[in-house]
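From the pipeline queue, job 12 of 40. The input is one protein chain; the requested action is below.

Action: predict structure.
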Amino acid sequence: MDALFAGLTLRAWTGRRHDKEISREVSMRHEAPETAGRYTKRLLPEVELYENIRSVLNEARTFHYRNTLASHLDGWRILTGANFEAYSEGIRQRRNELNGLVAELVESWPALVEQARKHLNGMFREQDYPDASDLAGRFGMEVRLLPLPNAEAFCADMPVEQIGQARENIRRQEEEARRAAIRDLWEKLYEPVFRMVERLSRPEAIFRDSLVENLREIVEVLPRLDVSGDGRFAELLDRVRALSVHEPQRLREDKALRADVAARAADIEAQMRAFMEGLS
């Protein structure tokens, strides 16, 4: 496969702290053992800036999963060469957005801590809050890249028999990575089609615009993730793309169109499900 392993690491100050003293007070008030529960403080009141930071981090995680494929290794996913440029640009944009928001948070930090002092009142503890100078380091977005296993490229100063054993082990890893990636590729296409069948097949069922928008997004990225070399996948992808051209509002208003799209989606879903049952 023309691909790399990609691992995404996201860091964030949690904004929460277990307060042993308050937990003990609650237990005593209710005459319960201290092991009965824990009191976790929310260290900041509702702060839009902090919530925006969390949203960017969550969106980066979603973007990472959508633009990579599963692998056989925990914490590592497969980034195809065809999607490398789009993935790198998407991460760069989100990292820049994160850095800008964190800079605003650092600038606002003294005022936010004072708001928290008033909000938490007797539960406020100065030591729960990092210094403004340390705050930026609590947030981050990093991508690590590693080459995929390649048995033919392996060489080492080892006995010939051991080199052969090592290459066989690497070949097994190559195959495990390939199977995991292909399985994920099919699942990425299957899930939005299944949801479309589920919602559109019931004439009175309400659906959001995201039903169609998610389908459009996935058919746009999947050609760059296709490591299968399977003509059946490419054919079904084209058929799914044809379903995504209809505007959500028209599907709501045109009952005949809705029924037609639902039937076509159901046929595609059934074919995919039958094929995926054979994937190991």
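Job complete. The mean pLDDT is 91.
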